[in-house]
RNA polymerase sigma factor (Amedibacterium intestinale), 139 residues
Amino acid sequence: MKLSDFQKTVQCRFESCLKKVVRHVVKDYQQGLKRRKDKEIPFCELPEIVVEKLAVWDEYETDYTIFNVCGNDIRICDDELAEALKHLSERNRENLLMYYFLEMSDTEIAKRQNISRSGVFQNRHNSLELMKKILKEKR
């Protein structure tokens, strides 16, 4: 069946209009992508400090060992370190935990443990040597 001139004209106009619509839809889509690209940052490109703020870390009691020193609970996440600390006497363990985790000075620790400041230093030094020896044996 042959199309009349009028039908051809209508068909050509329709196709022309359809092409314009498709061109504008594609153009709008590309502009939208460009706007999003300008305003958005891929998650992999975020600085680590921002990711840390967004992250939520679950903590379970099995993930750490708790030592109570001076009324403070000190959580040790490293199992090997916790085991090495358990091998120390209570006084030496408290000495290390107060110094490194509670950031107490030798003088403050000496007052709490009723020993001299040099005794605190010597106990800590000996405790660290013993822990080093324990940790080497386990490896």
